[in-house]
Amino acid sequence: MKRFIKPIALMLVVLMVGVIAAACGNSGSGAKVSVGIVLPTKDEPRWVQDEQRFKDALSGTKYTTEILFSQGSSAKEKENVETLINKGIQVLIICPHDGAAAAAAVEAAKKEGITVIAYDRLITNTDAVDYYVTFDSLAVGAAQAQYLVDNAQGTGVPLYLYAGAASDNNAFLFFEGAWKVLQPKIADGTFKIANSSEAEALKGTAELTRDQLGAIIGQVTTNWDPNEAKNKAQTHLTAAPADMKGNVAILAPNDGTARSIADVFGTDSAVTSYLVTGQDAEKASIQYIIDGKQSMTVFKDVRTLVKDAMGMAVSILDGNTPETTGSYNNGTIDVKAKQTDVIVVDKNNVKAELIDSGYYEASEFTGL
Ligand code: BGC
After folding, report:
1. What is the residue range of 315's domain?
2. Of 67, 96, 263, 350, which has the most beta carbons under 10 Å away?
């Protein structure tokens, strides 16, 4: 037997749905978002690239997303997270500007029952992170260091060390990975440290504690800022005696800082040649590699990281448990993680890895 809903009952149902939606904080504008994405800054090509890769990956998904940038400010980041909470997100994908300061933002999200995925950079000292998608950051640092070891000629090669921002957990992982490879080669006289008394004092120590890493990073940090990197490199070269010039090796933490450090070393007439590392495979650095101005970069295929993060978000929204491959301790808990490998790129394989693979267009470069 069929049952008919009387018009008055129907009106009541419509009214109640409206009341419930309002109570859920659905801001009236009707803009409901399922996945919120917060990225650290538009000022570095790396994160603009991530935004583009997210946009490419999102076309055609049934879930709605919104991407906000924090512009290097933890306060803005917290505001972004609050905006997204008010839009009803169920999953937050966040790459923190400052890994420790971001704890407050993700704790606010967690309180609303939102699942938090740390993206590329871990959020530290909080239990409010559910998952972490990342590249193998120890391997990034190790690959940079191995490149210097494999390509430096002779012994007593001056070694200039630079690091990322101390507020970024990755800066520790990159340096830790690099130090494990470099330290035995400093101990055996292949390299001599040119610009860090803290590293010099620890050159006999193979495994550094977090505090020891912090002491070195504090001295040679670029803060991920190409200008700061440039100023530091100038200061170091001005102070360097003649035996710290000639053919040198430079551990630069990423492409943005590598290019500005390379520009400084490239214009010092007492520097005969330099090897300089990088990471991110930024377009400008690919051109530097083609031109012989940067030695290598570590290619981190952002498409994979985006795919992993979105895959996790979708499986959470579908009520499933995302797949993980290991975990990272963030100082408070072990965060379940999915990790991606990296690829070393130099002049020899730049075309195969980045152009022939379709990551970039040949027309974006000259002299290929
Ligand atoms: C990222 C690098 C990036 C750096 C500066 C790190 O956390 O892993 O890819 O170059 O931050 O933004």
Report:
1. 27-129+302-341
2. 96
